[in-house]
Amino acid sequence: MTAQNPARRRWPAAVLIAASALVIGAMFGMPGMGHAASRAVPANTALPSLSGTAQSGSTLTTDNGTWTGSPTSFTFAWSRCDVGGNTCVPITGATSQSYTLQPADVGTTLRATVTATNADGSASVTSAASAVVLSAPAAGPVNTAPPTISGTVQVGSTLTAATGTWNGSPTGFTYAWSRCDQNGASCAAIGGATASTYVLQQVDVGTTLRATVTATNSSGSTQATSAQTAVVPAVPVPPATGCPSGTGTIQIADLSLPGQLLIASQTITPGLVTPSAKTLQVHFRITACGGRPVQGALVYATAVPFNQYSVPPEAPTGADGTVELTMTQLTGFPAARHQRLLVVFGRARKPGEVLTGGVSSRRLVSFPVSLH
């Protein structure tokens, strides 16, 4: 039997071991297999940018920038830097996407650092610096309680605007009144209404009023507006009286229905009618509208029954409302043997009106008679 070469016996085993190693290496070298795969944290492709006004009291906001790696979340951190955007120091607590600039930021610049995170890890980038932060503009007075309006809300009444209360030590106030709808909206300025008071007009009926107060100090001016008033009611129309306004004597031309003349009083001279009283002076006083004397009323008088005394022509009343008519005795007096009274029919009327209509008034009056 021929002896085999040991080297030839070892070659198949070496081939088998090498092949196995290639398979195992291939398995562990494949992407996604085992723990040898590379990590894919977010990668920034465009820096975050800031928006907003670099002024104390204003708000700056950063966007996220753009990233690959599908970040699932972002966090933020703001830093205060020198005017060149260098030597930055984190601002404690400033970890939101927006930051409100403080007085301490005046004269500096701001940067925002954005950190993007996904399942494989996190990466951070920082924005360019903002403009240098400016001081807040000077502020005018600050209103702490709005203006108020007092007064009766009706046509002819006066409304008064109070200034309200203010911080900032105002040195002056100006006023402007507006006419609004019933809900206090759709307001329009009232021309010339620039005093602290306003007298309600007929045109204001059905509307409400507001007052705007402007307070001024050395730093500027600020406006504040009152709440609206109640709705201005319509003016009730008083019933017609036919009487002119005012007091004192009424001119007959100014009196109309339903006003009415009144024979308010009457006297006779002599005071006792006798057969020897050949003439009589009858005095009438004519009034209207609650006792005011009427000037210019035409007064007529005649004895009843007729033919006792003459009928004088109508005569107008004077400024005191009085008139004197002279009657002459006729053959018909006395009208009876035992006559005790002389009855006189009196009438007062407005010139141009019918005798029995208009504001005219009629009355029977009597005077004592003595036949002895």
Secondary structure elements and their pairing?
Layout lengths: L5 H24 L13 E4 L3 E2 L7 E4 L3 E3 L4 E9 L7 E2 L7 E3 L8 E10 L2 E6 L15 E4 L2 E3 L7 E5 L2 E3 L4 E9 L7 E2 L7 E3 L8 E10 L2 E6 L24 E2 L10 E8 L9 E10 L3 E4 L2 E7 L10 E2 L5 E7 L12 E9 L11 E8 L4
Parallel strand pairs: 19-22
Antiparallel strand pairs: 1-4, 2-3, 3-7, 5-6, 5-8, 8-9, 10-13, 11-12, 12-16, 14-15, 14-17, 17-18, 20-21, 21-22, 21-25, 23-24, 23-26, 26-27
Q: Can you tell me about this structure?
A:
- The protein has three domains: 43-126, Immunoglobulin-like (Sandwich), CATH 2.60.40.2700; 142-225, Immunoglobulin-like (Sandwich); 250-368, Immunoglobulin-like (Sandwich).
- 6% of the residues lie in helices and 39% in strands.
- It contains one helix and 27 strands.
- It has one helix at 6-29; strands at residues 43-46, 50-51, 59-62, 66-68, 73-81, 89-90, 98-100, 109-118, 121-126, 142-145, 148-150, 158-162, 165-167, 172-180, 188-189, 197-199, 208-217, 220-225, 250-251, 262-269, 279-288, 292-295, 298-304, 315-316, 322-328, 341-349, 361-368.
- The strands form eight sheets. Strands 19, 20, 21, 22 and 25 form a five-stranded mixed sheet that branches.
- Strand 14 (172-180) and strand 15 form a beta hairpin.
- The longest helix has 24 residues, at 6-29.
- It is rod-shaped and about 150 Å long.
